[in-house]
């Protein structure tokens, strides 16, 4: 009667296939996660620019200059202050928001 179960060669083939799949999928997953974080940061930049535009258009802002206090835009012009998913900081220059992480910069 034949023994039930797997031979060592069969198990090694299965383990090799799993290792090959992991070697392909793990770097791909890391890449997709990083792309999503960059997209979120760029969306935050656009949101902050829109909030700053509302601030500049405010009649009480008689000079119609951009805000000097980004955090002050919340909660009047934006519900809450967004933050960079990778820990960068936002700065405002000439009505454009920049992230301190270079790879998060948008192309205009
Ligand atoms: Zn960022």
Keywords:
108 residues, mainly alpha, Pantoate--beta-alanine Ligase, Chain: A,domain 2, 2 strands, rod-shaped, binds zinc ion
Describe the structure.
By secondary structure, this protein is mostly helical. 46% of the residues lie in helices and 7% in strands. It has a two-stranded antiparallel ribbon with strand order 1-2. The N and C termini lie far apart (73 Å). The site of zinc ion has 7 residues, from loops.
Describe how the helices and strands are arranged.
Elements: H1 8-57, E1 90-93, E2 96-99
Antiparallel strand pairs: 1-2
Residues 41, 84, 86, 88, 99, 101, 104 line the site of zinc ion.
Structural class: mainly alpha
Number of strands: 2
What is the terminal separation in angstroms? 73 Å
Please name the CATH topology.
Answer: Pantoate--beta-alanine Ligase, Chain: A,domain 2
Count of helix runs? 1
Helix content: 40-55%
- What is the chain-wise order of helices and strands? HEE
What is the name of the CATH architecture? 2-Layer Sandwich
The share of residues in extended strands comes to 5-15%
Rg calculated over all Cα atoms: 25 Å
* Number of domain modules: 1
């Amino acid at each position: 009667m034949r023994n039930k179960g797997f031979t060592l060669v069969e198990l090694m083939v299965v383990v090799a296939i799993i290792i090959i799949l992991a070697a392909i999928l793990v770097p791909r997953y890391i890449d997709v996660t990083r792309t999503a974080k960059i997209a979120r940061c760029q969306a935050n930049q656009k949101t902050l620019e829109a909030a700053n535009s509302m601030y500049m258009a405010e009649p009480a802002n008689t000079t119609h200059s951009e805000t000097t206090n980004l955090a002050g835009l919340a909660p009047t012009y934006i519900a809450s202050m967004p933050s960079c998913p990778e820990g960068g900081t936002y700065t405002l220059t000439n009505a454009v928001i920049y992230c301190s992480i270079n790879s998060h910069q948008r192309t205009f």
